[in-house]
Amino acid sequence: MIITATNPSTDQLERTYLSQSYPLGVTTVELKNNSQFPNNTRALVGEMGLSETEIVTVSSPNANSTTTPISTTLFAHPANTPIYNLLFDQVKFYRSTTGINGTYSLLAQVNLDVTNPNLQTIYNDNTALAGYYYKVSMFNSATSVESAQSDPIPATLGYARNQVGYIINEILTELSDPTQENITTDEIIGYMNEANDDMLSSVHRPYKFLKTRQVFQRTAGANFLKYPTDSNGNQLMWKFERMDYNFVDPTTTPATNTTNTLEVEPLVYFRNRFVNNENDVTTQDDMIQVIALDDANQQFVYYPPSATTQVATFYLYYWTYFPQITSEGNTILTPNPRIYKMYVYWRYYLKRSATTTDYATLAQSYFQQYTIEKARLKQQDRTDAGTPRRFEGEGYVRKSFRR
Which of 77, 91, 195, 371 makes the best surface tag, with the fewest CB within 10 Å? Predict the structure, then answer.
């Protein structure tokens, strides 16, 4: 099993240049400015992906802001060779042998392959078996700073078809740009997020594939539930469908165990109706009757306040936002990855048409194909459910579901 890590970009790194040419084996160089290269810095000499690029360790720079002691170089370098202050110089590969949610143990820690023409660092696990999963992270061997781990990568198959890394590999292959000279992984991920935003803003009914469910507990004394959020506190609920409530009372004969969909009222009416919806013993009861959506406070309010605590009682059904794509291991939610490829190709050729006008026609062609793919999603994967947070305006009455 070959696990591939994309080398980090040097675009945003601190950079300077060699003041003169040097043979191999030197331990001190003159830089045009060494102010951003403190002691114990791991520095890249040369451009990522070239055959004589290497990583050296910087010692304490001299006070003249140019002379810089470094570890012994392995290659000769001409004047004006760029020097980058690396954030990371190694890759850590982790493996789980007990499934995607198992424990990931460090499998290997390797130096960044800065001479790889595809801008990748690769590790081959010869003992891989079906069911193993892998994660990778970037590491700075001088400062011991480690990046977040990637999303899980399944063994034997590499990235699955619905993972971002699979789509990126296809795009770079079809554009004959494995070294990312004309488009980078970061650009592709940015375009894919733009496509998600465009799909949300242009739809009139929610996509079925964005529908999900989340379970909440009942808490004694509480009269509200916060809207669902991700680990960063970002709102997940794009459109609300319904809230089901499960009531269990083991003291009755037979035991009561019922689930019903709660009535939803406008917030103003709810507040006027339940003026004294306070958390006190006089109003608390576990037979929840009605809820309202309080968008200003990002929460559901309900009546009456809960009397006791019980797990798994509220079942929220809603349509989620597209999750932010941040890495190649992320999974896409759309049923057809082709829509992302068409959007990326459109933006890619549109950018290139600024300098080569011949690409304008090709860009327009891919935009049309993207529009077609987006229309197919609207026709096949949307639903007609109306909700209190519905897409239509207040008072709208649908006379027919046919189109």
Answer: 371
Q: Kindly state the greatest CA–CA separation across the chain.
A: 91
* pLDDT at site 386: 45
Where does residue 172 fall: left (phi above 0), alpha (psi -120 to 50 degrees), or beta otherwise?
A: alpha
DSSP 253-288: SSPEEEEEEPEE--HHHHHHHTTT--SSTTT--SS-
Nearest-angstrom CA–CA distance, 311 and 133: 32
Nearest to 312 by CA among 253, 259, 254, 238: 259
**Residues pairing with 2 in the sheet:** 124
Q: What band does 387 get if pLDDT is binned at 50, 70 and 90?
A: very low
Give the tokens for residue 87.
């954030």
Residue pair 89/142 in contact (Cβ under 8 Å)? The answer is yes
Q: Which residues of 362-401 are buried (b: 16+ CB within 10 A; e: fewer)?
A: bbeebbebbeebbeebeeebbeebebebbeeeeeeeeeee
State percent of the chain over pLDDT 90.
Answer: 55
The pLDDT of residue 379: 57
